[in-house]
Amino acid sequence: MILYLLRRLFLLAFVFIALSILAFSLGYLFPGNTLQNFTGMTDISAEMATQLTAEYRLDSGYIQQYIAYLQRIFSGDWGLSFASKQPLLQEIKILLPATLELAAYALLVSFFVGIPLGIIAAIKPEGIVSRIISALAIAGYSIPIFWWALLLIMLFSIGLGWLPTAGRISVLYEIPHVTGFMLADILLANSQHQTEALLNALRHTLLPTIVLATFPTTVMIRFTRDSMLDVWEQSYIKTARAKGLNRAQVLYRHALRNALLPVIRQIGLQFSTLITLAMITEVIFSWPGIGRWLIDSIYQRNYPAIQAGLLVISTLVISVNMLTEILHTLFNPLARKR
Amino acid sequence: MSLLMATVVSACQPQLPETVRSGLVYCSEGSPESFNPQLVTSGTTIDAISQQLYDRLLDIDPQSGELKPLLATHWQVNDSGTVYEFTLRPDVQFHQTEYFSPSRAFNSDDVVFTFNRIMDKSHPFHYQGGGNYPFFQSVDWANLVERVIAVNSNTVRFELSRPDSSFLSNLATDFAAILSAEYGASVLAQGQPGRIDSHPVGTGPFRFKEYQKDVLIRYYRHKTYWRELAKPEQLVFDIVPNNARRMAKLFTHECDVVAFPRVAELGLISQRPDVDVQESTSMNVGFWAFNTAKPPFDNAKVRLALAMAINREAILQAVYFGYATAANSVLPPTSWAYNAELPQLPFDQTQAKALLAEAGYANGFSMDIWAMPVQRLYNPNALKMAEMMQADLAQIGVRATIVSYEWNSFRRKLSNNEHDSVLIGWSADNADPDNFFRPLLSCSAAQTGTNRANWCDANFDRLISQALLTSDQKQRRSYYMAAQQYLAEQMPLLSIAHSQRFQALNSDISGIDINPYGGISLATAVKDVK
Predict the structure, then answer these.
(1) For B511, left (φ over 0), alpha (ψ -120 to 50), or beta?
(2) Which of A63, A306, B111, B124 is most buried as measured by Cβ atoms within 10 A of its Cβ?
(3) pLDDT tens per residue across span B247-267
């Protein structure tokens, strides 16, 4: 098992090196001045340029430059953003939690809605309930997310006036930025009106969460259903039924555990799609996350920000992928032995 | 059961904190460039900062256009009109903020500090933020005001090099906000002089709390304000550049007030019972300025021909949707100096062609029309206007190309006079007619780069300077009449329309008026909580 973990970690390190080489080479591949792309400073005087070139090792070979780049990444000097002139790491620290928060809610919803629905659909595969669930899942799977989001805004925000259209909380609540996770920050803010602020934040979260959860939920439903149907055919289920256990007992003791294993693996595989969809959701709901920031940066040709954003997001996706794979192995005795 | 009931009821009518309940959200269309009104001209910035954070020495009555005392309680002028003495209001407090605690009330040192920053090159803050004071440069402030002297702690004397009848009006504009000398000394001692413009301290109804670029500006009520305290305890400027998104936020009541609703959507807004539209005729003009230093636009005949070829009536309908008055002069008809006898410029393409032939361009020529990329009150859609003009000009053989850049580079390139012609406009800062002439068309404005026609004409400059030397309104009017007549003949710019200003707000908000002279004030806004 330890050997397995080491192998995984080694793979992770290798992937990270590949990613950082890509991010590093972007400094050269992007148009414009390489020094500007790396530092994020736009007007560099001649003497500053010499000093910075020395500091960034741009006068030596690519290998030395890359090592200097890695050192900067690990010491937290990620350069400045062209647009705001602020340190990029600082900006990302503020923005990333917002994206993670949204993605986490969406994943939670997809678990608590998708898995039960998948099980229900699998119990009587030819029944009307199962057919309805499958049809909904197909519809949810194929609906373009931006259109779905606009439909929900038209109905619940502009039409009925129930829910807000943008942001994480009403701008009138002043919540100091501590962790970057809105709900945690509200609890930490120690104001007398926590309940109102929490309710307000939840109202803001509802629509983006529904929109972002739609795709993973449908994936969850389909996978749970298929894997349940698969497991249901196995001989040990028949044995359990023959021994006199009722449907619910068999489902809980034997079928579910085995059926959910491939589902765990799916989370990792779907995570990159989830992050891409989160970017679209953030743009539509003006959610101040890293996805919206990255898209704005692309519009503004903010090369240092694109470079840093790509590195952060791809590292995140790879890490989550690894993590679910490790979890999958932990829960699966067969894989553990291999 | 009763507990459950209580929860349900309290959920319906939550006891919101005061800052949220009486807080006002104003959705604006852009981020401010600075928090110091001296440094800017853009209406977006002035709306967001000037009347909320600062006071001026004088105020303009929005109804009558007359001057009213504000931080100066009264003032005297000597007989030759060159020395103004202001008595200052006692017990006016500056903002107490997280970064500054004032130890004294407002006095004459603050006034001297404020105005010396603009004109004294050795002032420690003069070059802070670039050393450009666009409004003051356009009215030739540095040459006009020789000295600002603190006579005693509550008297200030301005000594002018020549009489200027627009001087008091200029002091009442949103740009002439009073800064704190004590705060200036404090940021200087901290070695962070830039904070004077980014972390503002003024005497206005609100104090600064935080600013997140492109996200929001947060103000709180100034608790020791010398006038009636601001009604909203908190004021947030939610920055939403997208028009459609701003409308959506108005309909969901995430915004209480929305700046510049699109004229095309006014019909839609008025159908909703929960949203009101306010309207006022504003002192502004949208125009088409020719770069008169570049041939062939240095020829008045060419300019007249181009002006005559434009169907302005169609533009009024298609671009302003009828919510504007056709302009016949650069001055709006509501100004006391408006020349009503000015002949109407005809829309006559045959005559335009003849004029072009007379000027030696019988076969026409090619030119650029620069269309500003942003929506402004005086020109809600410059691109569409440019397209219509392109079609009109093609009729007289002039091939026009439409040019547009991102707003900041657009203005920079304009100031360098790289354009052939440009669609832009002007909103007045005060009620004085001079505000339409000198900042737009004088030689000094051509030097500072706010004269979009790049026009420097000795005759015209003489007329508008003479109008300033006297304070007799009849005499001034005759000069301005002549100046308008002269403009109609020379046509350095074609005035297109005087637009109405609109503002959409939730129907439970009251107490906000549109000020025809410059920025909005939100201190009197009341939110009627149901």
Answers:
(1) left
(2) B111
(3) 888 888 888 998 878 777 887
Q: What is the pLDDT of residue B9?
A: 39
Q: What is the pLDDT of residue A335?
A: 67
Strand residues in B415-491 grouped as ranges (E) = 421-427
Instruction: List, for residues A23-71, the tens digit of each pLDDT value.
Output: 888 888 888 777 777 777 777 777 777 877 777 777 777 888 888 888 8
Calpha distance B474→B472 (Å, rounded): 6
What residues contact residue B349 under an 8 Å CB cut-off, 6+ apart? B308, B309, B392, B395, B396
Segment among B29-33, B57-61, B220-224, B259-263 with least mean pLDDT: B259-263
Cross-strand pairs, B494: B288
Phi, psi for B7 (deg, rounded to 5): -65, -45
CB of A94 within 8 Å of a chain B CB? The answer is no
Tell me: pLDDT of B7 over 50.
no
Nearest CA in chain B to A192: B17
CB neighbours of A181 closer than 8 A, spacing ≥ 6? A97, A100, A101
Distance CA A157, CA B128 (A): 45
Token pair listed for B150: 């603190």
Say if strands B24-28 and B234-239 run parallel, antiparallel, or are unpaired: parallel
- Of the pLDDT bands very low, low, confident and very high (cuts 50, 70, 90), residue A337 is low
B210, B215, B254 ranked by CB distance to A165: nearest: B254
User: Minimal CA–CA distance to A200: which of B25, B11, B529?
Assistant: B11
How far apart, in whole angstroms, are the C-alpha atoms of residue A44 and residue A302? Answer: 16
B215-219, B332-336, B345-349: which range is least confident on average?
A: B332-336
pLDDT reading at B139 higher than 80? no
Mean residue pLDDT across chain A: 84
Q: Which residues contact A149 (CB under 8 A, 6 or more apart)?
A: A207, A208, A211, A280, A281, A284, A285
Task: Calculate mean pLDDT across residues A292-309.
Answer: 86
- Kind and range of the H or E element at B210? strand B206-212
Strand partners, B220: B207, B234
Q: How confident is the model at residue B3 (pLDDT cuts 50, 70, 90)?
A: very low
Give me the amino acid identity at A269. L
User: CA-nearest residue of chain A to B249?
Assistant: A165
Q: Which of B259-263, B286-290, B387-391, B500-504 has the lowest mean pLDDT?
A: B259-263
Name the residue in chain B with its Cα closest to that of A84. Answer: B213
pLDDT at residue B16, rounded to an integer: 66
Q: Which neighbouring-strand residues pair with B527?
A: B509
DSSP bridge partners of B234: B220
| pLDDT value of position B5 | 39
**A56 half-sphere exposure, CB direction, 13 A CA radius:** 20
Q: Is the minimum CB–CB distance between B246 and chain A shorter than 8 Å? A: no
Rounded Cα–Cα distance for residues B49 and B237 (Å): 10
Average pLDDT of the residues in B91-105: 92
Residues whose CB is less than 8 angstroms from the CB of residue A216 and which lie 6 or more positions away in sequence, other chains included: A106, A107, A110, A114, A270, A273, A274
Confirm or reject contact between A25 and chain B (CB < 8 A): no
B427: exposed, middle or buried (Cβ count in 10 Å: 0-12, 13-18, 19+): buried
Q: Count of CB atoms within 10 A of residue A28's CB?
A: 11
Quick: pLDDT tens for A88-107.
888 888 889 999 999 999 98
- Chain B, nearest residue to A170 by Cα: B254
Q: Name the strand (E) or helix (H) holding B235.
A: strand B234-239
Locus of tokens 């049809």: A135
Compute the nearest-CA separation of B474 from chain A (Å): 51
Q: Give the nearest partner residue to B252 out of A157, A173, A174, using CB atoms.
A: A157
Closest to B275 measured CA to CA, from B288, B284, B283, B266:
B266
CB contact under 8 A, B251 and A158: yes
**b vs e for B205-221, b when ≥16 Cβ sit within 10 Å of the residue's Cβ?**
bbbbeebeeebbbbbbb
